[in-house]
Amino acid sequence: MNQDYIIPEAWSIVEEGFDKERVKSSESLFSIGNGAMGQRANFEETYSGPTFQGSYIAGVYYPDKTRVGWWKNGYPEYFAKVLNAPNWIGVDVGINGEKLDLNKCSAIRNFRRELNMKEGWYHRTFEAVLQNGTEIRVDVRRFLSLEYDELGVIMYEVTPLNRDAKISFTPYVDAGITNEDTNWDEKFWEPLETRHSEKEAFVVSRTFKTHFHVATYMHNTLFRNGEEIASVPVSEKAGDDRISLSYEISVAKGEKAGLQKFGGYTASMNHPQDKLVHAAQEVIGKAVEEGYDRLLEIQKKSWAEIWDMADITIEGDIKAQQGIRFNIFQLNQTYLGKDARLNIGPKGFTGEKYGGSTYWDTEAYCLPFYMVTKNQEVARNLLSYRYNQLDKAIENAEKLGFSHGAALYPMVTMNGEECHNEWEITFEEIHRNGAIAYAIYNYHRYTGDYSYIPEKGLEVLIGIARFWAQRATFSTAKNKYVILGVTGPNEYENNVNNNWYTNYVAKWCLEYAAEQVEEVKKHYVSDFSRIAAKTGIEHTEAAQWKAVGEAMYFPYSETHGVYLQQDGFLDKELIRVSDLDPAQRPLNQKWSWDRILRSPYIKQADVLQGFYFFEDHFTGEELEKHFDFYEPFTVHESSLSPCVHSIQAARLDRMEQAYAFYLRTSRLDLDDYNREVKEGCHITSMAGTWMSIVEGFGGMRVREDVLHFSPKIPEQWKAYSFKINFRGQLLSIHVKASGTEFELDGNTPVPVVINGRKTEVHPGTPVTV
Amino acid sequence: MNQDYIIPEAWSIVEEGFDKERVKSSESLFSIGNGAMGQRANFEETYSGPTFQGSYIAGVYYPDKTRVGWWKNGYPEYFAKVLNAPNWIGVDVGINGEKLDLNKCSAIRNFRRELNMKEGWYHRTFEAVLQNGTEIRVDVRRFLSLEYDELGVIMYEVTPLNRDAKISFTPYVDAGITNEDTNWDEKFWEPLETRHSEKEAFVVSRTFKTHFHVATYMHNTLFRNGEEIASVPVSEKAGDDRISLSYEISVAKGEKAGLQKFGGYTASMNHPQDKLVHAAQEVIGKAVEEGYDRLLEIQKKSWAEIWDMADITIEGDIKAQQGIRFNIFQLNQTYLGKDARLNIGPKGFTGEKYGGSTYWDTEAYCLPFYMVTKNQEVARNLLSYRYNQLDKAIENAEKLGFSHGAALYPMVTMNGEECHNEWEITFEEIHRNGAIAYAIYNYHRYTGDYSYIPEKGLEVLIGIARFWAQRATFSTAKNKYVILGVTGPNEYENNVNNNWYTNYVAKWCLEYAAEQVEEVKKHYVSDFSRIAAKTGIEHTEAAQWKAVGEAMYFPYSETHGVYLQQDGFLDKELIRVSDLDPAQRPLNQKWSWDRILRSPYIKQADVLQGFYFFEDHFTGEELEKHFDFYEPFTVHESSLSPCVHSIQAARLDRMEQAYAFYLRTSRLDLDDYNREVKEGCHITSMAGTWMSIVEGFGGMRVREDVLHFSPKIPEQWKAYSFKINFRGQLLSIHVKASGTEFELDGNTPVPVVINGRKTEVHPGTPVTV
């Protein structure tokens, strides 16, 4: 833990007291988003202290020219980056002629932020003494509407406390912004057009190269003591890429001056390029029609609907409760699953780091969360995203020398093209293909919906199977297929041979794809003929895949009775993490790369990731052996590591360990374990936190169309509960030390297996086991 | 072969005819240097076509901020670069008011360049028709004095052919130059001061960051028909970093107008910083005193002395003759061994690529050439260079986690600090340490001079042995020491385990260092106590090194009866290079990096490099087996590869193959095999060419203080001869099909072994065997 200023509350993230050192961290933690746009918790008014400005529009990116020390064939020319979008939130505030700037006030009292997760708004209040002696109270609420996802709302209120005051509000929209993360210090936005009237302003700009057109807009209304002021004189300032409108209100001591600012973006992804201002005007029209209070009501309702399906309660452990809700909230702020063109960036709308929006995190960690807490179209959209990018994955594989429709999905992408440029990752961390195939299997297993496979999934599976079949090498020395030169999920090993996880997932992909080819061929004849025509699949191909899968080599140690992470693992000096000098950690900050590589230390689950995906292929004893062999060498220096270990520790009845891993994953950002939350939150690992509870403590599995549970409870907790949308019915699970209660909101009884014992849950009739 | 415009002559490099496409290539091939400075064959006069300007001062470098995509701990902050130095050669030429520019003339006739290697000058002549109709003949000779190594000389003569003409010469010195190779497009030079008079000009500038101060100077004399003109009116132009002096001479048709320009550099490496202009004036004084003709005579004499010891003649194969002389000439232009602060950059003074001046090439390839063709101080200076940088090598190892005086020499360096920034090279290509120790052994073996070891060498050996002892890992699984995560000489493999070459050279270093510790302890008591005090060597250390060396693991294939290049080599798909589609080559331009890595293809000798260094540890049969196993997978995409193979093919009596490898290495740049000569020549591999003849065809070896030869002759040749300085006496070897003649220029008979038969060569009495 690196910080503990966040006040534990069940439904809110709260900060009290103003500390300049915490500003960037809080800008990340109090970020808001609605799936279509996002906003770091930057102050609306001028702030001259250290800050990291971030406004984001989902799907809008910039291909930043790759920066590299030593170029290798096959590197992509560009790294597609999430980019800082024009500023719509800005409001300069003047108090009796002095600009409000929290970095320059004489005193700041009662500073408080609250991110209300239940209702989806961000609220900031403080009292400040300005250098001119005026004391004011400020109260600002901001939210991004889920219902109208191009709309952001700000209510900015100022009350002078010790004298009458002239309050000026100067809201603006500004496309002249820069990016924190840029390889060559280039500007990413080109201004095209501005328009304004007394209440409204529009800046149309477009990204260089990608030519996403965006209208950034605002609409302002002034209030005195909560009453709208019909007409306030305005003075305007319009530049090429920035428009500000300035209003002044005189208020007596104790009276409230208010500015309501509607703002946001309309983008060419969703509207004709030449209709963006018109579209923005329509959003403004709707917002004005609904009005602030009603918009806030709608927002609460939208979030209530999300929580109704996705909430997890934890009794007796407020920090754990706050942690899990923060994770669920951020995931929903980032991605709502309405749009198959979007995906789940590793920092969501809370920062720029890593660029790209899509990693294997989506399939390996995020899919289960969205599949279980939302309607199944959302998970289908996540799968379709990859289907829609299959052509690019085939191109990507071609660049690396593969042929005949072999597909290699990118390590990092925005539009399907590979962005990443480290050979050991870009070219070698190919296990990512496995997670993409596994997600198709996982979707079918959980939802029971096979239709996705003949419709879209099979083509993806064929491309992936072709890749593995070509990528495996037949070793005459071993008389087996080997997979040479890879990086596994444990990125603290590079260019290794026969990474067990990669070989295992490859074998599985080959066999699963072969089975689906047979299945679709038999039962979905017209789909198959369409797919066969498109892919040119030959009748011998599936058999070849099976043959490669069956003859796959797996490194194994007879001495230890475990599969080896890769060839040669046992040559390492096997000193456990617990015997390492703590001063040496985190390794990635203390050791040179070669030292990390030749050490046995594991960044995140690797063999154990395979045991997580394919749990049913192994006995509990086998899991225990492998967990005991590998966990002691695991440094968990990836945010994606603790969750898998938490789930497996729970399965092995090691609840202390499971709980410790859970705490680390659930409060990773709130407590800033990795000293980097100011750069943004770890969005994708938040889905892992959710898995730790539902699959770890709750022990939820689906086996042959039946839900299995083996509920356990950490001794720190009194009870916890979660809900799952299982095939259209909502099942609630409430776990206490004394027993587990199941309740079904649906029409058809659901058979479940609890701790191996079969029972049935009937609609409206709670069952306790 | 990619070009063949160089006209074969025994002593000269000649180009005839002007072709803009060849300008950059010829700029590299016709480069001149004198060990202290160098100059690409840029035109003196303005040239508006594509050109690569390059002037270089030995030892002057710039630490360019590292550019990298993904930073790793341990990467150096800077890459020390050879940098383009201020221009001293420039002479703008006006003909009846029109600027001479070969890119803009109406016609160019009889264009000819000659680089006279025997005498060390570069000569360019041509006739041009200007746009104004004036026809002129131009004749320019340029050389860098070996005797006065801060002095360059230009004689620039213009004869109008069809009318009288006003010829203006505007010589200049210019520090406002840029670099082709810069990571961030920065300027590397800061101008400090200028001074000039009617005949002379000085620009003092310094490199940013490193603060090398340099005075760039010129001194001009005008001639009409070879007669000095006492006084010519001058008009001057002096900026911050550039001074030009303009002179005009009227000549009648057929008369010759001449400019003699002395110029060059004085640098703060060799003079007090505030005396640079003074030092330059002294050089000018000497040059004026000697005069042009005498300076040229001295130059011929200096080169005659070099050739007297270093020349190799080849009869019956003019291209091979030209090739070997070009290689010997370039090596001598680059490094003369007078200054232990300097070393042999991979491009010498012919380009900027690769930066740094020192690679393992120096010890592995260049040392033998300098050791055999020069007095032994030169080789000693090359060794001392590493001794002087031992502290930096220890620091470098510390950055990577080593301790207790372990030393890791840099992959690329200027001043001892590591420059390179690719983890797989910088951190893992550690075999370089082995070549540095081997050079000490090699020096002692050849020169018989043991004194270097107690004096300096032992400290280096101790640092290197400590590194290997710490870098090896004890594998309990193998009950042997293993070396994990390395890149061998074959850089087409990265991060492999138990690279045979690395393990072998490590074992050898450990054992050799242990023996030298014992030797010095016994016979050089006072040296040992000094070294022991300085290094803190413990009395058990040498025994530990031996123990690690003795228990070193070597991958071996019983099936093939060969050592394996690394663990897992036999898992690869072993398709021979000859069975590869030629369209796939060169691999480094056609294949992505992962594909290269998992292929069996070898960039340059790796196991065979070990067999080259330690030939006497293996039987001829073993060599043959390994050569036949590895050569078929070798693509020779390193300039350092063919020479080792040529030597071994000769040893195996495969003269056709040996000759083919020889041709490829000796004319690599002249015929531009790698399509990159315009970036500069491959200087260090030129020493490999020399080895191909002396050690390959000549079969020269030193065993137990005795010279061995096994002369062979390619059937394309009538005869060839070379000389070697063996322990202060000059032995000439003349090989013909009918027999080999030995001749000794010295005082003491030299025992030699020819094809296994012992004989003696007596001074002044040729022996034919």
Automatic annotation (TrEMBL), chains A, B:
Substrate binds at residues 360-361, 603-604. Residues 14-268 form the Glycoside hydrolase family 65 N-terminal domain. Residues 700-760 form the Glycoside hydrolase family 65 C-terminal domain. It holds the Pfam family Glyco_hydro_65N. SUPFAM superfamilies: Galactose mutarotase-like, Six-hairpin glycosidases. GO terms for biological process: carbohydrate metabolic process. Residues 325-691 form the Glycoside hydrolase family 65 central catalytic domain. InterPro entries: 6-hairpin_glycosidase_sf (IPR008928), 6hp_glycosidase-like_sf (IPR012341), Gal_mutarotase_sf_dom (IPR011013), GH65_N (IPR037018), Glyco_hydro_65_C (IPR005194), Glyco_hydro_65_M (IPR005195), Glyco_hydro_65_N (IPR005196), Malt_Pase/Glycosyl_Hdrlase (IPR017045). The active site is at 491 (proton donor). GO terms for molecular function: carbohydrate binding; glycosyltransferase activity; hydrolase activity, hydrolyzing O-glycosyl compounds. Belongs to the glycosyl hydrolase 65 family. This is Maltose phosphorylase. It comes from Sinomicrobium oceani.
